[in-house]
Design brief:
Length: about 675
């Protein structure tokens, strides 16, 4: 029988109650139990006291010299001391509230104690004591696994249970990785790796065990992705778009600027996907300002030429309107009808738009998630594009995709994700990257200044406005309870309005109605207002080329990706632009972040360093990230292994004899057991 099929109740001591308690931890079978790895180890290997530093945790062997003396503080609290000699040093061991040990010491006896070493007082504050040989044997000299447990399960009981499982069933653990791979990376066997992950004798053994299991975990994950991809490519019939290259070329030649090399490259990748009878599932990433909109327009045009409708979904109303207006400029001359659909259109306007969409009069529909409503029925949807795709959940993406039969899908994002990470998060997608900025773009000068220089910043803004330029001043949302010098956008606004008069200052914040927000945005876009004080609403996508100054107050409260997005709001016109980060960061990381921002304007470089600082979960926001929950692997450190695993996985699934060869049979069986008929998995 397979270990997956043997229930934990076969082990001694697992009755109905324990069975349920284990189930709460996700442990049902012997395989689950063996795969329930510790999250850390307690080190009970003997240390040398003469080398231990102050306050270090140590485990020492000691000879008892005297008799313990106990002092009581009330009925329950006690302090017991005992003179011993350890590593040739006479020291005192101190136990708090463990007076029950009092009668168990004899002069000359060798005991082992673990605890915190007070080097100055030559005292060891003991938290664990091993007196008998049998107690010593079990733990001393080892790394003891620490598991996450619930209130119904004691740690020691679980340790023993896992140990028993290995004693009885350890030999039945089957290898899953092909011999070839194990040789290539010098990986120890699955059985030893699993055992040593629980019960390593030393660091090296633990390291080898972990390396092997990390590889296995990432390899199997990538294998699933590669398998899905292969399946998707071979089985899902996508729309075939037919359009003439000549017409696309004419469109491109009419643009106000030549495409960058990177834009040309991604355009041809996208157009070739459109032509193929496969369903496009492509991520288009490019830094803020790299020119994704025009790429989207070209794809929408090709889709239109093929006789289909296209949809562009964006996260906010302001953005929907901006996109609609830039797409109109690009597409109306070529007779495309661009229609907007947002949540706050009047019932009448909506009805109108819906009618046009359903009858096929609308060639391109731009909207917020209002596009997902059931009432939206397309005549013939052939291409779906989402902008800032990480803001939409996986489910919303799927809903939009289901609006047509098998429309091609393009996800655009300006959050640059390091390649290694994107292949995990967007594993089953193809990725196109615009890694080049349009010519003539000047990088935004970035300065980090302390809050004390605020008056000078105000003068700087004043000077820029006098030259006809405009400025953004961004403030983070701040909880009411926090008392800071300038508390929120409202206060910054009032102060600036006063000091900058007659320069006109506008205020934009999250509690305003959409209509009010739009009004303010519009007057800023028309240069009726020169300075816009705002919470992060301008973060995404808006385009005001005349704005050349970006001041970010309390900049250390923002993530790097967000700061980068905000900075991308300026430097869009020809003028030299400046970003001022105002912050008095308290933490090392805060300081490091400000440094990174002032040193580079390359979004990929920033995201790489952000990833180092924060780890992938935080980096993308755990909920949004779509990152699988790995048991052993940690993507902050194991990205290199992930890359290797991915290459190998691709190689294996594409082998002709993958399903039949005895070497890869366990892998194929693993895939079959995974229920890969659903397209999502974790
Ligand atoms: P993003 O990738 O951030 O969405 P946009 O598509 O908004 O960037 O483009 C930013 C600005 O750059 C727009 O004003 C656009 O017209 C301009 N632009 C795009 N491509 C080019 C190019 N190849 N040469 C010059 N300007 C370009
Ligand atoms: Mg954009």
């Amino acid at each position: 029988m397979k270990l997956e099929e043997i229930p934990v109740e076969v082990l001694p001591g697992v009755g109905e109650q324990k069975k349920e308690a284990l189930a709460e931890l996700g442990i049902h079978s012997i395989a689950d139990l063996m795969g329930y790895f510790p999250y850390r180890y307690e080190d009970y290997r003997l240390s040398d006291l003469t080398e231990a530093s102050h306050e270090e945790r140590v485990t020492v062997e000691a000879q008892v010299y005297g008799q313990p003396s106990v002092r009581w503080y009330g009925k329950k609290k006690s302090r017991m001391t005992l003179r011993v000699q350890a590593d040739g040093v006479p020291i005192q061991v101190v136990w708090f509230n463990q007076a029950y040990l009092k009668n168990r010491f004899r002069v000359g006896q060798t005991i082992v104690v673990s605890g915190k070493w007070d080097r100055h007082r030559l005292q060891l504050i003991a938290d664990r004591t091993f007196l008998s040989e049998s107690e010593k044997e079990k733990v001393v000299g080892r790394l003891e696994p620490v598991y996450s447990v619930n209130s119904k399960i004691r740690m020691n009981w679980l340790r023993k249970l896992i140990h028993t499982a290995f004693t009885r069933y350890g030999r039945q653990i089957e290898e899953i990785l092909p011999e070839e791979l194990r040789k290539k990376y010098k990986l120890i066997s699955r059985a030893s790796a699993m055992y040593y992950l629980h019960f390593p004798k030393g660091k090296e053994e633990g390291r080898q065990a972990r390396r092997r299991m990390v590889f296995e975990e990432l390899f199997l994950y990538e294998l699933k992705i590669m398998w899905l991809r292969r399946f998707h490519r071979q089985e899902v019939k996508g729309l075939v778009h037919r359009f003439e290259n000549e017409k696309i070329r004419a469109f491109i030649n009419q643009l106000a600027f030549p495409l960058t090399g990177a834009q040309k490259k991604v355009v041809s990748e996208i157009l070739s996907d459109l032509r193929e009878p496969i369903q496009m599932n492509r991520l288009l990433q490019g830094d803020v300002g790299s020119g994704k909109t025009v790429v989207a327009a070209i794809a929408l045009y090709a889709n239109y030429l093929s006789g289909y409708q296209g949809a562009l979904m964006v996260p906010t109303e302001i953005l929907a309107e901006q996109h609609a207006s830039s797409l109109k400029k690009l597409l109306t001359p070529w007779n495309l009808q661009v229609v907007t659909l947002t949540g706050r259109m009047t019932a009448r306007e909506k009805k109108d738009a819906l009618g046009q969409i359903q009858m096929g009069l609308a060639d391109v529909v731009v909207g917020t998630h209002a596009l997902l409503q059931e009432t939206v029925v397309f005549w013939k949807l052939g291409l779906v594009i989402t902008d800032e795709q990480h803001r939409f959940g996986v489910k919303q993406r799927a809903m939009l995709r289901e609006k047509g039969e098998v429309p091609d899908v393009l996800y655009m994002t300006a959050t640059p994700i390091p390649r290694t990470l994107s292949i995990t998060v967007f594993g089953e997608m193809d990725v196109s990257t615009i890694d080049e900025m349009p010519a003539g773009r000047q990088p935004v000068d970035t300065y980090w200044v302390k809050k004390e220089l605020w008056p000078r910043i105000i003068r700087f803004v004043q000077k820029e406005c006098a030259r006809g330029r405009q400025a953004y001043v961004i403030c983070p949302l701040i909880e009411e309870s926090e008392k800071l010098d300038l508390q929120n956008a409202q206060e910054v606004f009032e102060q600036m309005a006063m000091e900058l008069a007659p320069i006109r200052v506008g205020l934009l914040h999250g509690r305003m109605s959409s209509a009010e927000k739009d009004e303010v945005m519009r007057s800023f876009a028309n240069n009726e207002v020169q300075v816009l004080v705002s919470t992060t609403v301008v973060e995404v996508g808006v385009d005001v080329p005349n704005a050349t100054v970006m001041v970010i107050y309390d900049a250390d409260r923002f993530g790097l990706a967000q700061l980068h997005q905000l900075r991308g709001r300026v430097g869009r016109g020809g003028g030299k632009s400046t970003c001022v980060l105002v912050a008095n960061p308290k933490s090392e990381t805060g300081i490091e972040r400000m440094r990174i921002m002032s040193e580079t304007t390359d979004g990929f470089e920033i995201s790489r360093r952000d990833l180092e600082l924060r780890g992938p979960g935080d980096f993308l926001g755990v909920k949004q990230s779509g990152l699988p929950d790995f048991k052993v692997a940690d993507l902050t450190h194991d990205l290199r292994i992930l890359e290797a695993a991915r290459t190998d996985a691709a190689d294996y699934v594409n082998r002709k004899d993958f399903m039949t060869s005895p070497e890869t049979r366990p892998l194929y069986e693993y895939l079959c057991a995974q229920n890969l008929t659903q397209t999502s998995f974790d």
